[in-house]
Design brief:
heterodimer; A: 165 residues; mainly beta; Glycoprotein, Type 4 Pilin; OB fold (Dihydrolipoamide Acetyltransferase, E2P); nine-stranded antiparallel beta sheet; four-stranded antiparallel beta sheet; 17 strands; 58% strand; B: 469 residues; alpha+beta; Rossmann fold; D-amino Acid Aminotransferase, Chain A, domain 1; 5 domains; eight-stranded antiparallel beta sheet; 21 strands; 36% helix
């Protein structure tokens, strides 16, 4: 099975062959991986160096690599084949969700707007604080999923952004 | 002494409930119906025959009505009495009191502003930038920076709205904004017999949106002379207010070492362990002693400070995405240890971190013989720590503890804005990046069943639905 993997700013093509060996960029890597905590943490030895990798969260995927937090994504070729958007979803598409239940005070953008990084997208009032949720990067607003003045649940989809060049 | 705890529905499984000798439910998650419900708290205290009530920090810890209700129920309130709380809780009266005690205050208004036009007038007189603040405020709520007169209108609405909601008092005042200043606070302790001592400062300038992230003592910009002047100013304010119990007097210190009074926090601070680490004192035990009518058991001259200490606040916030709140279940936990490392927390694997309350998860307090040793230990401690299942501020701390400006002690309240861009990916060594790529594949290959974070699951479902569209 082939995976398109991104770790921080680097892209990798990782193949896992039938015997469980890893090939990166087509080259076999002498790596051994031990699952330390089921589905959560691995100890990976490469060329005599051992690294501890912990999955902090799945969506978005964040890994803790020897104490350093880094963003990552891994999409297998089937998912890529099924949806040409899968890659964009893994990296270029960003859903802004309500981090906690609250009152959506204001929506500062319209669909189709291109916003700069840190531009305020919505204002969410929660815990008596008005929190401005800002654009994580320069992006296009592809969907507005909530209206100003409405109550939203924690995790509710607010806005979908897509990457622009 | 045995401890009685209270808990809301959201905290039923919380660690404090299990560690307390007795624990009582006080209602639903909404603070108004539980942790802020004075009558329910008094009822539990009565029912369990409490002698004293410690209000902690947050919720009712600076609420004069609560202090009054505790005293009227015949119990000792572990904090300043109601009239002191009321006096210092009004930030405008506190400003006047400081000025009368001969302590410098920032230029500003000493009366509540009647309306927006009064604010405009004050802005023209004092000049921009300025801070619009709630008289009943604190903790960064009801506070707005105004750099341009055009912003005043919106700032007024936001600040008064927040103030009315959070403090039940919409009145605002303005203060000149001192930029590139440090937030330095002085710990004090006072008893009912007239003794007031200061215990040392904490530099709390590493803040975002007026919420402290890192506190340390000694303050990198505080020398013995400035420390003595801050201590003297804090004691003068405490005496003028007839203060009792532990408290913190906050100051802003500019680049020249000039300072002015900000406010008094009439409670134990989140960052009190920093002072405990450098003085060797147990502030909470001292709080109970003076609340019981005992004297402060030492004189000012007996207070010694040794070494340095730094506190890192681990919050349930995605530091790499602008500190948006993060919630979930702690799936994996590894806390640091070793000489000079203290962790105050209530975490355990399986703990569901509720979104209802403050995002503070843990405090890592690290001390050493000097600042460099404390920071080196802090770096190791952060490196050891794993809190998986949600995102935290640990990535921020890992960065700051390697930043040359922080290491040199060169920072002020603008530090986080100018020094933290969470989106830039930290450098990984090639073999670590390869290991991460392999782990990412292994993680994706595993059937993802065990990570039952409600929000994450919703995200995954949405992603899967999208993928099939």
């Amino acid at each position: 099975m082939r995976y398109e993997v991104a770790v921080a700013d680097r892209d990798f093509i990782v193949d896992v062959d039938a015997s469980g060996r890893f090939l990166i960029g087509g080259e076999a890597v002498a790596a051994t991986a031990d699952e330390v905590v089921r589905g959560r943490q691995w100890r990976i030895a490469i060329d005599g160096r051992t690294h501890e990798v912990t999955v902090l969260t799945w969506d978005p995927m964040r890994l803790l690599v020897d104490g350093t937090e880094t963003a990552a994504s891994a999409i297998d070729e089937r998912a890529l084949a099924m949806s040409p958007n899968a890659r964009a979803q893994a990296s270029g598409r960003r859903e802004l969700r309500a981090p906690m239940p609250g009152l959506l005070r204001a929506v500062h953008v319209r669909e189709g707007d291109v916003v700069d990084r840190d531009a305020p997208i919505v204002t969410l009032e929660a815990m008596k604080m008005e929190n401005e949720i800002r654009a994580p990067a320069r992006a296009r607003v592809t969907k507005l999923a909530a209206r100003a003045g409405t109550k939203v649940e924690g995790g509710a989809l607010l806005v979908v952004l897509s990457e622009v060049d | 002494m045995s401890a009685v705890a209270v808990y809301s529905d959201a905290d039923r499984d919380a660690l404090h409930v299990r560690l307390a000798d007795e624990a009582y439910p006080i209602g639903p998650a909404a603070p108004r119906e539980s942790y802020l419900a004075i009558d329910k708290l008094i009822e539990v205290a009565r029912r369990s025959s409490c002698d004293a009530v410690h209000p902690g920090y947050g919720f009712l810890s600076e609420n004069a009505n609560f202090a009054k209700a505790v005293a009227e129920a015949g119990m000792a309130f572990v904090g300043p009495p109601a009239d002191v709380q009321r006096l210092l809780g009004d930030k405008i009266r506190a400003r006047r009191l400081a000025a009368e005690a001969g302590v410098p205050i920032a230029e500003g208004t000493n009366e509540p502003l009647r309306d927006l036009s009064a604010a405009r007038e004050a802005a023209r007189r004092i000049g921009l930038p300025l801070m619009l603040k709630a008289a009943g405020g604190g903790g960064g709520k009801g506070m707005r920076v105004v750099r341009d007169e055009a912003e005043l209108d919106a700032a007024w609405r936001l600040a008064s709205g927040e103030a009315a909601g959070a403090f039940g008092d919409a009145s605002l005042f303005v203060e000149r904004l001192v930029e590139n200043a440090r937030h330095v606070e002085m710990q004090i302790l006072a008893d009912a017999h007239g003794a007031v001592v200061w215990l040392g400062e904490r530099d709390c300038s590493v803040q975002r949106r007026h919420q402290k992230m890192i506190e340390e003592s000694p303050g990198p910009a505080v020398d013995d002379a400035l420390r003595a002047r801050l201590g003297d100013a804090a004691v003068r304010i405490a005496r003028a207010a007839q203060y009792r119990n532990a408290g913190t007097v906050e100051f802003l210190v500019d680049r020249t070492g000039a300072f002015h009074f900000l406010e008094v926090n009439t409670r134990l601070q989140v960052e009190h362990p920093v002072t405990e680490a450098v003085t060797g004192l147990d502030l909470v035990a001292l709080q109970f002693q003076v609340a019981a009518g005992e004297r402060v058991p030492f004189a000012q001259g007996d207070v010694t400070r040794r070494g340095a200490a730094v506190e890192l606040r681990v919050t349930a916030e995605d530091a790499r995405a602008g500190f948006v709140p993060s919630s979930g279940v702690i799936e994996l936990l590894r806390l640091p240890s070793g000489p000079g490392v203290r962790v105050d927390h209530a975490l355990f694997e399986g703990a569901r971190i509720p979104t209802e309350y403050d995002p503070l998860l843990a405090k890592i307090i690290v001390s050493g013989r000097d600042r460099a040793e404390a920071i080196a230990r802090a770096r190791r401690a952060v490196n050891e720590t794993i809190v998986a299942g949600l995102l935290t501020s640990l990535s921020f701390h890992a960065h700051v503890l390697r930043d040359p400006d922080f290491l040199a002690g060169r920072y002020d309240t603008g530090y986080v804005a100018s020094h933290w861009d969470g989106r830039a990916s930290p450098e990984l060594e090639p073999s670590a990046a390869t290991a991460a790529a392999i782990a990412a594949v292994l993680a994706r290959r595993r059937p993802q069943v065990a990570h039952g974070n409600g929000v994450a699951t919703a995200w995954q479902l949405a992603a899967r639905e999208d993928a099939l569209r």
